[in-house]
Amino acid sequence: MNQKQLLLLGEEKLKQNKIEDAYFKAKKLLNHILKQQNEQFITHNLEEVSIEKQKEYQEKLEQVINGKPLQYITNKQEFMGINFYVDENVLIPQPDTEILVEKVIETMQKQLETVSKTSDVLDLCTGSGAIAISIAKYVQNVKVTASDISKKALDVTIKNAKANLTNEKIECICSNMFEQIPKKQFNYIVSNPPYIQTNIITNLPKEVKKEPHIALDGGKDGLTFYRIILQNASNYLKTNGYLFLEIGYDQGNQIINIWENSKSNLELITTSPIKDLGGNDRVLIFKKVGEM
Length: 292
Fold this sequence. Notes:
Elements lengths: L2 H14 L5 H12 L4 H7 L6 H15 L4 H5 L2 E3 L2 E3 L12 H16 L6 E6 L5 H9 L3 E7 L2 H13 L6 E5 L11 E6 L14 H4 L14 H9 L4 E10 L5 H11 L3 E3 L5 E2 L5 E8 L4
Parallel strand pairs: 3-4, 3-6, 4-5, 6-7
Antiparallel strand pairs: 1-2, 7-10, 8-10, 9-10
Helix pairs in contact: 1-2, 1-4, 2-4, 6-7, 10-11
């Protein structure tokens, strides 16, 4: 069986099992197994595929059908134009989070026009390191502290930092939110914390449920970690420092209410949540306006 025939077989199998984007996933999986780029498929699609590779392809198709994310099979996900290694220990970086990172970088670059000092950034719940590494990659004068409660997630962060030549600009700390973070003040804090309600997780798509629950579960109302962040962030921010939060599509008003009740010296500088490409609420930005 040649590559083209195997691809069509894979596509049909995924379609029969109601897998979305069947052609895209079947092709990406085939190229991964054959260790080739997409362009190589165009010129090699009539080449015969060994029985061993055919068998491996069938086995991986079954994994996709059973809900394993394709990114965990290929161990690859692109984010902010950067290739990241991902596995079952970290969430898969999503395009919507790029909005968060873009806003952080945009704000930092404006600040760096007037201040040439190195900026200190704290990335809470770093996971794969996608946010921390993207900032370190695209901003010159920056030092990023990437923290996560999961040591295995931080191992992935370190792997990605080295692969993307940003490891000298990133320090990893294993910490349950702020507990192990040094008593210092940062110019910027950024976080995409767990924000799914506990009782909703069981109803998520099969693929999402294969991602680490600790990185999904935001507590009974999905807001546990926002309360912790908004209660503590000003203690870790310099005056005029910024806090950037990714939020769930329906959580904007609730998080603003938490902020209003926190009586902190954080000022909300976005009159309403910033939208993602799908038009959903995605980012809130706060600024520390002085000491309490």
